[in-house]
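Appendix B. One record, verbatim.
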Amino acid sequence: MKQMKALLAQLTDADLRLLRVFIAVVECGGLSAAEMELNIGRSTISRHLKDLELRLGLVLCLRGRAGFSMTAEGRYIYDAAKRLIKSLEEFRNQVNDLHHTLKGRLIIAMFDKTITNDECRVNEAIARYIDEAPDVLIDIHVVPVNQIEKGVLEGEYHVGIIPPNRRSASLHYMPLFGEQMFLYCGRHHPFYGRAKPVSDTEIIAQRYAGLSFSSPNMGKGQALGFQKTAEASDQEGIATLISSGRYIGFLPDHFANSLVKNGMLSKIDNSSFSYNCQFTAIYRKSPQPPLLVQLFLNALEATARK
C-alpha cells in the first residue's frame, strides 16, 4: 500500500482518539483482541487505523489473513504516541493540582500474589484514598518486578509495589510490608511429606524453579547455589512448576498455605532455605508527584504504619 506523504500541521482531539485506538490495538496484539478493550467493532477499529494512516501519511501496521504486525514506522509512532499520551496526562494532573482538583487516573503496578498477605494493606490504602478522592480512576497492573521498575522510571506507572533487588538513584523507596519465603515441593516429589529434615546437599541436587528476572528470589537462589532448570515470570508459574512434582522452589507462605492444606504442596524441612522478602512502594524523584499521586503515597504510608 503506497500512501501520499502528509505533514501533520496541527494535532486535534480526533487525532488523539485515533492514536489511543492504535495504542490499544498494538498492546492487545491485533484488531480482534482490541474489540473488547475498546468496546467497538473490528470494522470500526480498522477504519480508525486507516484514518490514522491517511492522516499521518504512513503505513503503521499490516492486517489481514496473515495476522497483525507493525511496520518500522508503526513502531516509531507507537513509542511516540505513548510518550505523548503520558505527557498529556502529566499536564492534566499539573493543571488539576493548581485547581486543587483530584481527578484523573492513578496507575499502580504491583507484583503478584500479595492479597493473601495479612501484612499487605494496599487495599486499606485504596479505601482511604478513594474516600478522599472519589473521582480518581484507579488502574492496577500486575506485572513482573523488572517491568514495574522500568515502567515507573519511564512514567508509565505512577507507583510501583515491589520487593526491590537493586535500587535506582532516580527512585524513592517507601517500606511497606514483608513476606516469609519457604522452599516447597509437590505431592509427587520424593521430599513430599518427609518426616525427617532434608539436608542441604539433597536440596541443591534437585531441579529448581525460580523467577526469570532480577529479584530477591533470583539473588537468594544464586547465593544458595541453585541452578535453575525452569523459570516463570510470577508466583503462579512457580507454584505450577512445583506442583508438577519435578521441581522445588520458593513461595511466600501466605500464598502457599492453601496449597499445602489441600495437599498439593509440602514445605521442605530445612531452616537454611528460607528468607524474608521486603516490599516497598517506588516512585520517581523527578518530576514531583502530582497531588493525586502524593495523596495515595500518604495513604500507603499511613496504612503501613498501623
